[in-house]
Amino acid sequence: MLPEQNPYSPGSGRRPPELVGRTNELEAFDTLRARVTNGLGDRGVVLTGLRGVGKTVLLNEMHRMADDFEWLTVRIEARRDEAGARTVRRALARELVVSARKLTRTRLSGRMRDALGTISSFNAKVGATGIELGVTVSEGRADSGDVEVDLLELVEDVAVALGERRRAFGVFVDEMQDLDPETMGALIAAQHAANQRDWPFYIIAAGLPNLPRVLTETRSYAERLFNYRPIGKLTRDEAGQAIREPAEKLGAEYAPDALDALLDAAGGYPYFIQEYGQAAWNLSPDRLIRYDDAAAAVQFGTEQLDAGFFRSRWERATRSERRMLQAMAADGEGPSSTGAVAARMGIQPSSLGPYRAALINKGLVYSPEHGQIAFTVPGMAGYVDRHHDDLDGSPTGIDDLF
Ligand SMILES: Nc1ncnc2c1ncn2[C@@H]1O[C@H](COP(=O)(O)OP(=O)(O)O)[C@@H](O)[C@H]1O
Ligand SMILES: [Mg+2]
Fold first, then answer.
1. Would the pLDDT of 54 be above 70?
2. What are φ and ψ of residue 128, in 5° steps?
3. From the CA of 42, how far away is ligand 1's center (Å)?
């Protein structure tokens, strides 16, 4: 069928044609939204899971819902690089100013005016943008340069002003496990203060499965601050719906054995569902997708994943790091104990540290628990096994990983 009509959406953060299997998460967020409208408090939300399960899509959906309710929102994505802390604070200030500009058209209460002054002051301190909000800058507020103090003052002024109108201040953070420790600590502390004092301020975050641990290690009370929601595979029924419905809406359908073949290959992972669905659509000569179309799609889709999704990660690793990935792949999807991985590589556990750190930095592996290591993408072990003789080739710095 025509690729230009293909409804599937493989890619990072791309909204799928059918957002299936996430009703509970969306309802939980809707409850939070409704509680804010009723002047009641709640906890922030933390979405965790492997890459490709649909966290970013869900975070974006929640962001959109918050905007619909006229919350003041900012969305940032954390990155592990040297400039990380500065970049993320500037992004926060810039987004905040842009968001707050919308309010300048409305009639502002005195508190809201002051809050805009605080935003301007925070922005001036981090030097994010020259855009002005047309209010007097609240000098001495949120501009000390100590991120914890400044964020707290910012959150207090903004959330209390929004609370007068039963709105909230929402900070949406993607890849939160990669946030620099200082900004992370400051955000958690602000959430803590907000919960205790009933300020409508909420962090809505997404990240790898180790994010809850990272948050708790940063501030032990983080354990109680958030509604933690693991996001995983779709059930077979949900996955079936995710493949079938987009096609049916366009007047195409799957033969039952074709659908089964695609579902077996995708294993319930949203990213793979989109990849195989896209291939099946393109490879089917007419509006009935048959078993042989699906079999060809599995072949093509797997080659596509190998050439893109997996290979872009593999290519980021150096030769020694690839050896570590191979040693991990012996445990299948894992997790692996770092001791066992070191033993397989014939090195001391202490010598594993630098490889482990480099692979974490590159986003290929994460540490689910102390002494453990696991792949961040489902299916990576299979890829590594299929390419075990491909140790050479210099690593690339491809940037569009997720
Ligand atoms: N609930 C869902 N149903 C079907 N496909 C989905 C769903 N959620 C996400 N996807 C698809 O999965 C892929 C990965 O989504 P993304 O949000 O980037 O994952 P993550 O942030 O967890 O790595 C995208 O192609 C997206 O269209
Ligand atoms: Mg993501």
1. yes
2. -85, -45
3. 27
Instruction: Give per-residue pLDDT as tens, 169-187.
Output: 999 999 999 999 999 999 9
State the virtual CA torsion across 281, 286, 287, 293 in degrees, nearest 10. -50
pLDDT over 90, % of the chain: 89
Q: Can you list the domains of the chain with their CATH numbers? A: 23-230 (3.40.50.300), 234-312 (1.10.8.60), 317-386 (1.10.10.10)
335: cis peptide before it, omega within 30°?
yes
d(CA 288, CA 1): 10
- The predicted model gives 304-310 an average pLDDT of 93
Amino acid at site 161: A
Task: Count how many residues are written for the chain.
Answer: 402
Closest by Cα among 184, 215, 206 to 402: 206
Q: Are 42 and 191 in contact (CB under 8 A)?
A: no
pTM here is: 0.94
Q: Which residues line ligand 1 (CB under 6 A)?
A: 9-14, 16, 19-22, 49, 51-57, 242, 270-271, 273-274, 402
**Distance (Å) from CA 48 to ligand 2 centroid:** 10
DSSP code string of 344-379: HHTS-HHHHHHHHHHHHHTTSEE-SSTTEEEESSTT
Q: Measured from the CA of 8, which atom of ligand 1 is nearest?
A: 27
Cβ atoms of 349 and 296 within 8 Å: the answer is no
To test the ligand 1 pocket, which listed residue (57, 233, 312) has its Cβ within 8 A of the most ligand atoms? 57
Atom of ligand 1 nearest to the CA of 22: 1
